[in-house]
Description:
The complex is a heterodimer of chains A (about 400) and B (about 80). Chain A is α/β, with parallel strands linked by helices and about 400 residues long. Chain A is built from 14 helices and 16 strands. Chain A has helices spanning about 10-20, 65-75, 90-105, 115-125, 140-150, 160-170, 195-205, 225-230, 265-270, 270-275, 280-295, 295-315, 340-350, 380-395, and strands at about 30-35, 40-45, 45-50, 110, 130-135, 155, 180-185, 185, 190, 210, 240-245, 255, 330-335, 355, 355-360, 370-375. In chain A, strand 2 and strand 3 (about 45-50) form a beta hairpin. The radius of gyration of chain A is 21 Å and the shape is globular. Chain B is mainly α. The model of chain B has no long low-confidence stretch (mean pLDDT about 95). At the A-B interface, strand 6 and helix 6 of A face helix 2 and helix 3 of B.
Amino acid sequence: MTGDLFSKFDDIIALRQSLLAGGGEDPFSLVMEKVLSPTRAICNGRDTILLGTYNYMGMTFDPDVIQAGKDALDNYGAGTTGSRVLNGTYQGHKECEEALKEFYGMDHAMVFSTGYQANLGIISTVAGKGDYIVLDIDSHASIWDGCALGNAEVVPFKHNDIEAMEKRLKRIPEGAGKLVVLEGVYSMLGDIAPLKEMIAVAKANGAMVLVDEAHSMGFIGEHGRGVAEAQGVLDDVDFVIGTFSKSVGTVGGFCVSNHPKFEVLRLVCRPYVFTASLPPSVVATAATSIRKLMHGGEKRAHLWENSRTLHGGLKQLGFQLGTDAPQSAIIAVIMPDLQKGAAMWEALLHEGLYVNLARPPATPANMTLLRCSLCAEHSAEQVQTILGMFERAGKAVGII
Amino acid sequence: MDRAEVETRIRSLIAPFNKKGADIADATTFAGDLEFDSLTVMDFVAAIEDEFDIIISMNQQAEIENFGQLVDAVCKLSGN
């Protein structure tokens, strides 16, 4: 008899069935039938406030961004049907890379088809056989997959633990190449990294540094360049990885760098070469959005105000949060367990609020989280409405 | 440091992670017999690395399934 290769998924299938057995809505099969704005959609037939997207700066419905996309569709067609290194580099891809260079004040920019592929490609290509990757244990899946795709030795350290990182760097055999991989904002709890101290330690030990700033672009740091900029150490970062699928409001990924030999990566980075480039409309919306984000000061201030109000309000209601103070636009509400978390998620959805339900293995320390991510387009009134929904749902489920 | 000494030191490091007080022999597996999850593995590996001042990369960890293999790997990595 043929062995069923799917047997390995039986535990996951059983867990999912037990969650759905209560007759509740499936947290992982939500459909948005209509999207009314960056902060509102019709979800499973219900008018819903969106508090679980990464649309931090609300750029998805910006009229200039939309117009740029429509123009590109008219002028360049629906897709490129080719690799960046063959027939897939259009004028729009170059303009998008120019916008990124200007946004970050760096010499080189390389656009990938997704943020996931940017980490996958840069990490697996830059760190080769005999080199060492030293990374935070709570790193995003795309960073781990970049490690798995390459041939370097992989050495994790405890989350945000400077001493643990230093000890490992010092034990690496002399002469081996070293890449330290960090994130500005860690997206599960919404906490930031002590990049200033960590990058100083990395440099003192002869390592190159890659920082993923996916969840900080556009609103952390003076120019919105991220946590490294906010902490005054962007010049010491060798590679910044970012994405268009958060503040920029579309899809795609990138790496910016001042490394003099950076351009060679276009020839040797497989997740860049062996995939089709982004459609012209996508790079046109991205470039327009990036340029607008350079002047997003007011929106930035309002986003921070929203983050502070929601964090303070949830704390006051008695919810346990991932950070003592708001450090980013992500506020993680810690649930006692998966059952209660799923019940709370559903109660909020019935109230008309969408948040992200996050559970192991994506979460640190096997936690179940309701992750709230704010948008600069959430009004102060909406944030108060959200707090009222949390209060009613939390009491109904028995969490507060 | 001979193998016996490495083994003794690792045994004392395992104790706080060996919640069920399972007997430890060369063939005792970390995932199966000791039920180590990924977080326990990280803390345990960090304890070993600090004790012997070595690095056990994830690539090397993938080859280590039982206690005996760990003792051998530590002996090798610490130059014995």
